[in-house]
Amino acid sequence: MNGALATTLIGITGGGLLTLHAVFFRMIFTRLDRIEERSDRVYVLAMVQGERLDRIESKLNIDPPAEAA
């Protein structure tokens, strides 16, 4: 009887740990996907801002490297 009880408790504990790890990894990968999506949006926004800055500089006839020196 004690052997069966010990085996059952070990099985339940092992199953619980496997489930915990599965949920943990799913949560990590979901967050990594969200971070990747946000970084893609930030990159696109930076590209758009860079294009806007280029247009403004060209309209004002500003050469940033020459102005900085």
Helical residue percent?
Answer: over 70%
* Biggest sheet details: none
**Structural class by helix and strand composition:** mainly alpha
Strand share of the residues? under 5%
Instruction: Please count the beta strands (DSSP E, at least 2 residues each).
Output: 0
Count of alpha and pi helical runs: 2
Protein architecture, described:
By secondary structure, the protein is an all-alpha fold. The protein has 2 helices and no strands. The protein has helices at residues 2-60, 64-68. The radius of gyration is 28 Å and the shape is rod-shaped. The mean pLDDT is 86.
Brief description of this entry?
The protein has helices spanning 2-60, 64-68. The protein is mostly helical.
Architecture blueprint of SSEs:
Blueprint: H1 2-60, H2 64-68
Name some characteristics of this structure.
69 residues, mainly alpha, rod-shaped
